[in-house]
Amino acid sequence: MGKPAFPGAHPLHAPPSWRCIDFISDIHLHDGLPNTMAALERFLSETPADALFILGDLFEAWVGDDMRSEPYEAGCFAMLREFASRCWLGIMVGNRDFLLGDAFTRDCGAHALPDPTELHAFGHRALLIHGDELCLADTKYLAFRAQVRQAAWQQAFLAHPLAARLEQARQMRAASQAHQQGDQQAMYADVDETAAAAWLNASGCDMLIHGHTHRPGSQPFGGHTRHVLSDWDLDHGHPRAEVLRWTQGGLQRIALT
To answer: The domain 17-255: what is its CATH number?
Structure first.
């Protein structure tokens, strides 16, 4: 599969009042992760950040904004709405919750973040993406992504009753897990460095911030610097939850475990 052309980035200029900006991603919220949910709730109540950017996969699965009628998702919505009443909140969709729509973000007081977004802050320019689009080695996933991001597919899917959509999401997730178990290349796919460098050069950004790959770290990348966000899981054997915090002094990783 060829390298995707840079689609252009939505520019976002941090106001002077933003002294502290937090980034998280890949929380994968669902009702089987009570400790992870509790950690997110604590973080939202305690962070000193003026703005929080969630760069995809806040939810393990999202099959339409009418999911807010489900008890667990209603609780998540209320938590985010309370936070957004105090701080600026931006939400980017990921590969698991790409159907998170404008109704959800609008009604909870958040801002929908286009992928990519170009954030200007503290004298730097950061390109914010979820990351899945540039994992070029996972060709099967990218073919699936191209299909489900089409408006016609989404309209047809959302026309089904909620219960049917939830069951289809469960089946798709099971198929995805089976695909990863049988395809080591897909399991360990990373953002393509050449493609990422092309996007960074086209945008004029000096750093890349993304999630998706579940391999947190900061390193030189394509002649620039990238910062990979941590996934969160405090309910299984190897607890992990990390925030990337940006201030005038630079970027810092903060472990919540």
So the answer is: 3.60.21.10
